[in-house]
Hints:
Four copies of one chain form a homotetramer. By secondary structure, chain A is an alpha/beta fold. Chain A has one domain (2-242): Class I glutamine amidotransferase (GATase) domain (Rossmann fold), CATH 3.40.50. The first copy, chain A, is 26% helix and 29% strand. Chain A has helices at residues 12-15, 17-22, 27-35, 57-60, 79-90, 105-111, 205-218, 235-242; strands at residues 2-8, 41-47, 65-69, 94-98, 118-129, 143-153, 163-170, 175-184, 187-192. In chain A, strands 2-1-3-4-9-8-7-5-6 form a nine-stranded mixed beta sheet. The longest helix of chain A has 14 residues, at 205-218. Chain A starts with a strand and ends with a helix. The model of chain A has no long low-confidence stretch (mean pLDDT 97). Chains in contact: A-B, A-C, A-D, B-C, B-D, C-D. The interface between A and B is large, with 43 and 43 residues.
Amino acid sequence: MIKVTVWHENYHDRTDEATQAMYPGGMHNVIASFLKKDEEFEVRTATLDEENCGLPDEILEDTDVLLWWGHAKHDDVPDELAKKVHERVLRGMGIIFLHSAHMSKPFRLTMGTSCTLKWRDNDRERLWTVLPQHPIAKGVDEYIELESEEMYGERFDIPQPDELVFLGWFAGGEVFRSGCTWYKGLGKVFYFQPGHETNPSYHNEQVQKIITNAVRWAAPQVMIEKLDCPHYASLEKKRLENN
Amino acid sequence: MIKVTVWHENYHDRTDEATQAMYPGGMHNVIASFLKKDEEFEVRTATLDEENCGLPDEILEDTDVLLWWGHAKHDDVPDELAKKVHERVLRGMGIIFLHSAHMSKPFRLTMGTSCTLKWRDNDRERLWTVLPQHPIAKGVDEYIELESEEMYGERFDIPQPDELVFLGWFAGGEVFRSGCTWYKGLGKVFYFQPGHETNPSYHNEQVQKIITNAVRWAAPQVMIEKLDCPHYASLEKKRLENN
Amino acid sequence: MIKVTVWHENYHDRTDEATQAMYPGGMHNVIASFLKKDEEFEVRTATLDEENCGLPDEILEDTDVLLWWGHAKHDDVPDELAKKVHERVLRGMGIIFLHSAHMSKPFRLTMGTSCTLKWRDNDRERLWTVLPQHPIAKGVDEYIELESEEMYGERFDIPQPDELVFLGWFAGGEVFRSGCTWYKGLGKVFYFQPGHETNPSYHNEQVQKIITNAVRWAAPQVMIEKLDCPHYASLEKKRLENN
Amino acid sequence: MIKVTVWHENYHDRTDEATQAMYPGGMHNVIASFLKKDEEFEVRTATLDEENCGLPDEILEDTDVLLWWGHAKHDDVPDELAKKVHERVLRGMGIIFLHSAHMSKPFRLTMGTSCTLKWRDNDRERLWTVLPQHPIAKGVDEYIELESEEMYGERFDIPQPDELVFLGWFAGGEVFRSGCTWYKGLGKVFYFQPGHETNPSYHNEQVQKIITNAVRWAAPQVMIEKLDCPHYASLEKKRLENN
């Protein structure tokens, strides 16, 4: 089983009618819903308004892959929690940053860059698959039409991705590295651009497939307790001593 | 002119006789000394024990390429200063992290990883040039012998480098990605492993050449004032309106 | 099922006693043997001395992952076959190049570089895992001791790998990028350095695990019939016509 | 001085009126013309219709950076010449592949992939700068408008670039990795997509700046005579013998 936690700031979902209409029950539950179709996933949700921002240590330590959606309330995530999430990634947890999570504290800590970009509401996107042989693109079409999505445009201030899986084309004239992976510490990181709160992207089956694939891809292989710099005795000296 | 600031925690140089004997006048001055041979460099030093840790805003903003050496006193660098250095890199400044700076706050912020590794004093290193066509390897031999250097061994917890320029071989049995580059924001970053405070590496002419090359390579090409996410009007809409 | 073909030039195995003693029945059969322990693999062998060099079209087209070992007889592989193998990789087949296959025609065609390196017989290698979170490193130790292996040393003339999974340390003083991956076309490529014909590396359980992992990792996800440059009608024009 | 050779298949320029009107005197001469404005460049042209296809050994060996434009006559370039060009790149020569040279023999040999893509005449392109801190992007705007250019669309079958410098947006709905770099052997390679023979891209000052920058960037740093796999005596053994 892969233990998945869908974290959501859950702000527009409680305050904005358009968001509520688009994602009844909250976007985190919509995402959890389609992830649950994968029988190997054990899916939880967690939201900012819950105690400990939904991520007490026992939940975070029990999570294999974390999905993160935030937008208006990045600053309400305590620095300490952001550091814990980041550190857990370095120790092996997979993490998927969705859409406006590009400016979230954990993403910025993980990238080591500003993660700034250009933006505009209500554009039309065509998402191109650039690396169809990547596990995250499994079963994904040559391109996906998203009739209404927020434009995110270059220059996206990220480190050069280890793998560029999807490129976004916007009708207004911009391009974007919309699906990128990085190894970070022992964890795997995927950033995926579609998913504005008033746009239907998470209802799109191809988008759901991508996120589901990404969870599988990001599942931990190695997980450690502690990050440290051990003193390391000379293997060659030991060898001489043993002979 | 490239404005270079050599920053040094300057601790062992004031407290440890072996360090003083190895780098009379302080390691920062030894490094500044060989950099000054390049007539296009305007070289300053700055140390942790100076006011504002040697890096008040007016110095940091006036620096094109910063070199950073720290080891025992990483924690004495205020978080705020580390963030400023990191942010200045993202806005375009070049930075070269030397040896034990792998655990410095600015390096860890810039990498987004733990930067942990294995270590051992007093080993022997052979530094291999893997990417001789890289500007940082200009004029550098196939390998460099360092009779006495601190062993740093894999796994080095860094993001996959954009370019792997040098690989270290240690007599005790370890390997290390000893010279790595990354684009980070608008800045260029080089990490270079040799340089323990009681070892003579910075007196080695080949090492001096590498660091000099790295300063030239890291010199800023684009420099911005502010990192932000601008709203961006549709270029295609403007186009239609203009026609 | 993953259809695996182990291709071997099978020269030393027929002419050299030391090789025969090390790999009774031929190295290809030893490799096929441990791969067959994975129940999802359907394993065949093919050798240069067979008809069509062991790789008639019907075999090649029926192969998901090809392993390639060659050394003394690279030139006996017809250019046409090398091109077919290369083209099949571009259409999606996975391929694993073992040891001296670094100078094989298919590897050089796939890399687009000379693949030259330094070498010396009968050294001792310690293989370090640099990317433990990579599928190919699953279950692999921090390092593997190979008491006797051929030294391959840098500069290894390969394109910068997409992923550097293993680094080799040699007692004689050299380092080597011993385990590297690349996406090439729709195929996945793994190069793995250990495996000299008179050394016991393919009897090493950790080495067997790496090669088994690599086969799984390289299994095709997308496979196409033909590589071409299609004329592509404007999606936006179609869209306007449909509205 | 950087010795630059602009190679052109020079076919449309001799047979097609639209091309002749767009690039009077031949596209190679137009390109050579703007390159000559850089006083450090010594610029030659060479065309397919000349003796030895314009590239006898003495010219090729005397070239630091080669530009290559071909389209309709890729097959008329002898395999032997393509191999020589490729091999010279591996020995250190810089090379810039322009537009339809994506299907040229030297590019395909150098990439090791099929280099296929989608295409359509007479679209409109907006070329975005993704890596403004790269030497090839020096002085280049945030984006360049190309009113009429051939659409090249993803999936572009190239190895993951070492650096992705420019991304193309096309009005018809496609995206393209339009400016990419690779280290290949000791040479540096830049692919740049604009430049259809009946479109005015090479008259665009920003495009000229990019190509000029690319020539400087690709100038050789290390150049060798021969590619081989030397036997290499143990450095550690020598060391013991010397002590």
